Amino acid sequence: MNHIRASNIFCRAVIAALVLALSGCTFTRLMTTQSEKPTFTYTGSELVETSQSRAIVNFLFSAHNPNEAGLKNVIVSYELSVEERKFAKGDDISVDLNPKGDTEIKVPATIVYTDLLPILGSIIKRILSGQKTIPITVVAVFSGKPALYGEAGKEEPVFFEKRMTRTVDIPLPQERRNK
Q1: pLDDT value of residue 100
Q2: From residue 36, how far is each of 59, 67, 103, 131 by CA, in Å?
Q3: Is the model's pLDDT at 67 over the cut of 80?
Q4: What are the extents of the domains in the chain?
Q5: pLDDT score of 175
Q6: Burial of 44 (0-12, 13-18, 19+ CB in 10 A)
């Protein structure tokens, strides 16, 4: 009787080990792989829309995730300024990063021209001198405490923070310049 019971326990243990080994390949790979921090690159901006009162711009970034698994819980925040005077910001824009490769990130920003009133003198000088754009400084912060994810779900946290600063030329209102 003990022989049958021991044999039954052994068979169950072998089956359980096989099931865990086969289904846990991704889990094992994730747990034994050293996680690396992603890198971020500013790639440009695209003007989405302009009107008399605002400009909508996407600031474009590329993220490279060297890990075998994707990253969730990555946050992007930004501040916009002209001549070191902040006038707009966006917080907690959530993005996911593809595994073992690049992800294009579009950070949308609405630039309301009335928010630029504190630097109106500078803007008027630019308009009167015939300039068609205004340099806006973008400070983007990519941060997170994401966990590696894959077929096995969340696994190992990867903590990081990357700050980037770029100056981008944004169009000034067309109508006012032509009057």
Answers
A1: 92
A2: 25, 6, 16, 44
A3: yes
A4: 1-32, 35-178
A5: 53
A6: exposed
What is the model's pLDDT at position 123?
78
pLDDT of residue 94: 92
Asked if residue 60 lies in contact with residue 105, where contact means CB atoms within 8 angstroms, the answer is: yes
Tell me what pLDDT residue 155 has. Answer: 59
Residue whose structure tokens are 């909508």: 56
Cβ atoms of residues 145 and 159 within 8 Å: yes
Instruction: Note whether 22 and 147 are within 8 A (CB).
Output: no
Query: Higher-confidence residue: 143 or 32?
Result: 143
Taking alpha carbons only, the member of 142, 4, 130, 175 closest to residue 74 is 142
In CATH, 35-178 is 2.60.40.10: yes
Statement: residue 39 has pLDDT above 50: yes
Q: Please state the pTM of the whole predicted model.
A: 0.69
